[in-house]
Automatic annotation (TrEMBL):
Keyword Ligase (UniProt): yes
Enzyme class label: ligase
Family, similarity comment: Belongs to the biotin--protein ligase family.
Residues given in the record as biotin binding sites: 45, 116
Highest taxon of source: Bacteria
All residue ranges annotated as the BPL/LPL catalytic domain in the record: 1-189
Role played: Acts both as a biotin--[acetyl-CoA-carboxylase] ligase and a repressor.
Species per Swiss-Prot/TrEMBL record: Paenibacillus favisporus
Chemical reaction(s) catalysed: biotin + L-lysyl-[protein] + ATP = N(6)-biotinyl-L-lysyl-[protein] + AMP + diphosphate + H(+)
Full protein stretch here: 71 to 324 of 324
A GO term for molecular function: biotin--[biotin carboxyl-carrier protein] ligase activity
Protein name in the entry: Bifunctional ligase/repressor BirA
Length: 254
């Protein structure tokens, strides 16, 4: 195991055995005034949450299920940028610690050869459109074996252990995610979203691909061209129209 070298991120730790969801634990701590950088980690979640009301499979001891408390001083509509920042931090850490060349799928999935290895869920509490706190939830399928996956995830999910061919030291990966996060968060605070967006674009498996996106306003199909200043995905449709997509489920097309 390795020490966490970052000074703020992960400086307060709460490590749990079984819990419903680290998101809920982190929210409760944030409501009690927990400082930025407070990190909640669990061995197992019985009610792990994914995006769009989905469940997140979180078996005991097999993954990294954690939630980080953030207190950015910014308007609520900037928070999608933090989802992308979190993705960059995890992607860089995964590559560094395990050598697995994972890539980012907009807005927040980490994929290896099209299979999901990590999901990110950012939730915020706001007052008058200003952020009170954000919870960055990170779920990394670290040491799952092929037989661990329920039927509905077979072929969709993979793990770092499966991809690297050896078990992952979870503590080193957690420490490196915190260090990368801290470095990027400082960059973001100092220079804004643009440098983070460039790093995201360089790690992306979405850009330059044909995508089909289910949005609340219906499906959009076209080429994924890049990120705009807010973090929205710029999609160029066949009629040449540029559409910023703020949320939705992306399907990569051949
Ligand atoms: C997704 O891809 O839909 C996001 C998945 C986020 C899962 C993580 S695991 C730690 C934290 N606690 C939760 O209940 N969810 C997030």
């Amino acid at each position: 195991a390795q020490r966490i070298q970052s000074t703020v991120m992960g400086s307060q730790l709460k490590i749990l055995g079984t819990t419903v969801s680290t998101q809920e634990e982190a929210k409760a701590l944030a409501e009690e005034g927990a400082p930025e950088g407070t990190l909640v980690i669990a061995e197992e979640q019985t009610g792990g949450k994914g995006r769009m009301g989905r469940k997140w499979f979180s078996p005991y001891g097999k993954g990294i299920w954690m939630s980080l408390v953030l207190r950015p001083e910014q308007p609520l509509h900037y928070t999608p940028q933090l989802t992308l920042l979190t993705g960059v931090a995890v992607c860089r850490a995964v590559r560094k610690v395990t050598g697995v060349m994972a890539g980012l799928k907009w807005p927040n999935d980490l994929l290896v050869d099209g299979r999901k290895i990590c999901g990110i869920l950012l939730e915020s509490a706001a007052e008058d459109e200003h952020v009170r706190y954000c919870i960055a939830g990170i779920g990394i399928s670290a040491n799952l074996d092929p037989g661990d996956y329920p039927e509905e995830l077979t072929g969709i999910g993979t793990s770092l252990k499966i991809e690297a061919g050896e078990p992952i030291d979870r503590m080193s990966l957690i420490a490196t995610v915190m260090e990368e996060f801290e470095m990027l968060y400082e960059l973001y605070r100092k220079d804004g979203f643009q440098p983070v967006a460039s790093l995201w674009e360089a790690l992306s498996v979405t850009l330059g691909k044909r995508v089909s996106i289910q949005t609340a306003r219906g499906p959009i199909e076209g080429m994924a061209d890049g990120l705009d200043a807010s973090g929205a995905l710029r999609v160029r449709t066949d009629s040449g129209e540029q559409i910023p997509v703020f949320s939705g489920d992306v399907e990569l097309r051949r």
